[in-house]
């Protein structure tokens, strides 16, 4: 029951080349920055990442991207990373863009054992009809496009079938967690973290504060420990490492 792993490096040591990895966070809010750096140092490549976005240049998943370690990204927002755009348009990176709410539900569905679901999001667009460029060729032509998806009418309205997402691993960050893997997130940093954690077969959580079992009020737990395999307690310096993507207020 004690899921605490001594270091972030040990927690991701067995993550292999080509693994699929769900990663929590929204922009730089709530990203598992310590685990991402440990994975960068570990050296796994050819990774297939599922995340709302792919970090920014030089931070978050941007570290793995700039090192050429990510082969495919499933996400919903990629507008803050110039290296991402360069790799995608240059044919070095495969990208599946997904409506943001659909991505959240695909992760949740995968974690709940639901193989697929119907949604109205994307009907009448290339999301449903196919043709979105997943990978470009070096000459700028489309080397691989998204396939059309099954569509069905319910009560006179069209819906598109979306598949649930499960991944080999998941990396998330929580404000508090206990040795059993029960997690509590802090406000906006909660974002995609619980959903990513649910989707991973082996979920690793870095926690800013590690507490003993019984210290968390069960009614306040956002993610039960059944979804978490490993817990890494951050040092005070690591816990304080929270980058700001765009400062919008005066000092």
Q: Quick one: how many beta strands?
A: 13
Number of helices: 8
**N-to-C SSE string, H for helix and E for strand:** HEHEHEHEHEHEEEEEEHEEH
The largest sheet, given as strand count, sense and whether it forms a barrel, is: 8 strands, mixed
The poorly predicted ranges are: none
Question: Structural class of the helices, strands and pairings?
Answer: alpha/beta
Shape, principal axes of CA atoms: globular
Quote the distance from N terminus to C terminus. Answer: 45 Å
Chain-averaged pLDDT: 97
Q: What is Rg?
A: 18 Å
Give the helix level as a range of percent: 10-25%
Measured by DSSP, the beta-strand proportion falls in 25-35%
Topology of this protein?
Layout: H1 8-11, E1 20-23, H2 33-42, E2 47-50, H3 62-66, E3 70-75, H4 82-89, E4 94-97, H5 100-111, E5 116-119, H6 126-129, E6 133-136, E7 142-145, E8 151-154, E9 157-163, E10 167-178, E11 183-184, H7 193-199, E12 200-211, E13 230-233, H8 236-240
Parallel strand pairs: 1-2, 1-10, 2-3, 3-4, 10-12, 12-13
Antiparallel strand pairs: 5-9, 6-7, 8-9, 10-11
């Amino acid at each position: 029951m004690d899921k605490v792993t001594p270091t972030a490096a040990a927690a991701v040591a067995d993550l292999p080349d080509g693994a699929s990895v769900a990663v929590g966070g929204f922009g730089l809010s709530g990203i598992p920055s310590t685990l991402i750096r440990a994975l960068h140092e570990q050296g796994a490549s050819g990774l297939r990442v599922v995340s709302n976005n792919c970090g920014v240049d030089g931070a978050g998943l941007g570290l793995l991207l700039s090192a050429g370690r990510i082969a495919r990204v499933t996400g919903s927002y990629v507008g803050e990373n110039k290296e991402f755009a360069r790799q995608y348009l240059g044919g070095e990176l495969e990208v599946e863009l997904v409506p943001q709410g659909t991505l959240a539900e695909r992760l949740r569905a995968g974690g709940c054992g639901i193989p697929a679901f119907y949604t109205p999001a994307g009907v009448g667009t290339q999301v449903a009809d196919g043709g979105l460029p997943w990978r470009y060729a070096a000459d700028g032509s489309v080397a691989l496009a998204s396939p059309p998806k099954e569509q069905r009418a319910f009560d006179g309205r069209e819906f598109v079938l979306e598949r649930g997402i499960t991944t080999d691993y998941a990396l998330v960050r929580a404000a508090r967690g206990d040795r059993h893997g029960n997690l509590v997130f802090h406000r906006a940093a909660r974002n995609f973290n619980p959903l990513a954690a649910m989707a991973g077969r082996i979920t690793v959580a870095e926690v800013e504060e590690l507490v003993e079992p019984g210290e968390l009020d069960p009614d306040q737990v956002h993610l039960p420990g059944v979804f978490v395999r490993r817990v890494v307690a951050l040092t005070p310096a690591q816990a304080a490492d929270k980058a700001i993507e765009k400062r919008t207020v005066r000092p």
